[in-house]
C-alpha cells in the first residue's frame, strides 16, 4: 500500500541563519487548511525561508487537530523558529467557524509553548495594517504586499500560506528591528 505524501509541503532543508537573525513561524489557523510561513529577519530586512499549508482530511475534529499538530511540529523541527505568531480569529457571523479556528489557533500556540518559543497573536486588522498600512485592506492587497516586502517573483500559493507569511511579517514589524 503506497504511503501518502506528508501533510506539509516545504522546501528541502532549513536555510542556516547568521548571527542576529530571528526566525518567525507565522500561522494562519484553519481546521481544513492551516497556512504556515517562515520568515527570517535581521535589522529591518525580512526574507522568506519557506511556506506551505497543512490540509486535513476527514470530518472528525480531534483527528484534524492532530494532523495540524503533527504538521506544525514537522515545520518547527525543520525550520527551528524563535517565535510563533498566530492570527486571532475574526469574530464573524458564524460562531461554529470562529470556535473551530480557535481550536486550530490553540494547537499552533501549543506547538510554540512546547518548544519554549515566544508566542504572539495578531488580529486580522493589525496584520493588514502592518503589511499594507490599512487595517481594512483586502486579501489581494495583502498578498501583493507580502510578495513585494519579501522580494518574491510571484505571490506564494496557496493563499493560506501567503496569509501566514503576513502574520510572520506583522511580528517583525511589531517587534522592531532584530538585534544584529
Instruction: Report the β-strand fraction as a percent range.
Output: 15-25%
Main β sheet profile: 5 strands, mixed
Instruction: Catalogue the unreliable spans.
Output: 1-13
Tally of helical runs: 5
How far do the termini sit from each other? 50 Å
Q: Gist?
A:
The chain has helices at residues 61-79, 95-114, 124-132, 139-150, 159-175; strands at 22-28, 33-42, 45-55, 83-87, 118-122. The chain is an alpha/beta fold and 180 residues long. α1 (61-79) packs parallel to α2, α3 crosses α5 (159-175) and α4 crosses α5 (159-175).
Task: Name its key features.
alpha/beta; Nucleotidyltransferase, domain 5; 5-stranded mixed β-sheet; 5 helices; 5 strands
Commentary on this structure:
By secondary structure, the protein is of the alpha/beta class. The protein has one domain: Nucleotidyltransferase, domain 5, CATH 3.30.420. It has helices spanning 61-79, 95-114, 124-132, 139-150, 159-175; strands spanning 22-28, 33-42, 45-55, 83-87, 118-122. β4, α2 (95-114) and β5 form a beta-alpha-beta unit. α1 (61-79) packs parallel to α2 and α4 (139-150) crosses α5 (159-175). The longest helix has 20 residues, at 95-114. The chain starts with 21 loop residues before the first strand and ends in a 5-residue tail after the last helix. Residues 1-13 have low confidence and may be disordered.
Amino acid at each position: 500500500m503506497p504511503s501518502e505524501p506528508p501533510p506539509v509541503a516545504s522546501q528541502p532543508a532549513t536555510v542556516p541563519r547568521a548571527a542576529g537573525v530571528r526566525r518567525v513561524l507565522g500561522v494562519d489557523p484553519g481546521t481544513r487548511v492551516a497556512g504556515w510561513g517562515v520568515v527570517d529577519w535581521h535589522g529591518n530586512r525580512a526574507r522568506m525561508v519557506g511556506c506551505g499549508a497543512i490540509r486535513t482530511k476527514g470530518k472528525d475534529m480531534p483527528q484534524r487537530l492532530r494532523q495540524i499538530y503533527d504538521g506544525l511540529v514537522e515545520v518547527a523541527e525543520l525550520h527551528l523558529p524563535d517565535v510563533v505568531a498566530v492570527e486571532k480569529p475574526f469574530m464573524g457571523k458564524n460562531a461554529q467557524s470562529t470556535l473551530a479556528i480557535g481550536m486550530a489557533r490553540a494547537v499552533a500556540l501549543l506547538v510554540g509553548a512546547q518548544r519554549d518559543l515566544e508566542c504572539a497573536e495578531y488580529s486580522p486588522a493589525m496584520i493588514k495594517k502592518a503589511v499594507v498600512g490599512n487595517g481594512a485592506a483586502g486579501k489581494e492587497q495583502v498578498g501583493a504586499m507580502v510578495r513585494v516586502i519579501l522580494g518574491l517573483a510571484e505571490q506564494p500559493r496557496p493563499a493560506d500560506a501567503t496569509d501566514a507569511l503576513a502574520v510572520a511579517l506583522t511580528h517583525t514589524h511589531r517587534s522592531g528591528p532584530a538585534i544584529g
